[in-house]
Write a structure and sequence with these properties.
single chain, two-stranded antiparallel ribbon, 6-stranded parallel sheet, about 220 residues, globular, alpha/beta
């Protein structure tokens, strides 16, 4: 019997044609949530540094939670499921779903690691039948969401650190990272960590890095 492999997928731009964190705020804004307009504007400005790898994730997340701060976790989880079904499901990359199914059929262990908040990543990962998720966690007090975000963030080198911690917590330290699929320049440390790396819909810079490192490149679409 073939030993299962650990397979990691980035989410936004890799499995779905979406920046789920940003689209969530547009979703809230469309539904007239208080502070959603202000949060969207602040986060959009901070996001301008994303492609350069210099984005301040702490500032981004503190703005991102403004519309949902003080809300009950159960309410936001239900809303996040609605968001995943209505906004994200139609944007799933066909080849991404196919690749997920291929690894699931092979008995591999699948994990989504995203720089988006866990509370919205979980219902999106569920659309693929993926139960293991690492995202950015928000502190909860008395069953309500606070404005405190928990570090380290699953962003840049933080993804590798959190992956290693996740492996330890699940008793999988001896299981190497077989494949990683990602579109992002911020995931180069994670791509370096994998035995087999795949760049999805990479921009010119990512395609150049992939060529230098011998990584596979793919173009996926909805």
């Amino acid at each position: 019997m073939t030993k299962p492999k650990l397979i990691v997928f980035d989410l936004d731009g890799t499995l779905v044609d979406s920046d789920s964190a940003q689209d969530w705020m547009y979703f809230l804004r469309k539904n007239s949530w208080p502070y959603s307009k202000e949060a969207t504007e602040i986060c959009s400005e901070i996001m301008q540094d994303y492609s350069s790898g210099r984005m301040n994730m702490k500032d981004y997340m503190q703005a991102w939670v403004l519309p949902i701060k003080g809300k009950r976790v159960t309410e936001i989880r239900a809303l996040a499921t609605e968001f995943a079904e209505q906004y994200i499901k139609p944007r799933i990359y066909t080849q991404g779903m196919r690749k997920v199914r291929e690894h699931q059929k092979a008995g591999d262990i699948l994990l989504v690691i995203s720089a988006s908040p866990t509370i919205i990543v979980e219902p999106i990962a569920a659309l693929f039948g993926i139960q293991h998720v690492i995202g950015i966690d928000i502190e909860v007090s008395d069953s309500k969401i606070t404005q405190n975000v928990i570090e380290p963030f699953s962003f840049g080198n933080g993804k590798v650190a959190l992956l290693k911690l996740w492996q330890k917590q699940h008793g999988l330290e001896d299981l190497p990272l077989g494949c990683i699929y990602s579109d992002s320049i911020n995931d180069v440390p994670l791509l370096d960590y994998a035995l087999n790396s795949h760049v999805i819909n990479g921009n010119e810079q990512m395609r150049s890095i992939a060529k230098e490192n011998g990584w596979c490149t793919h173009e996926w679409s909805v």
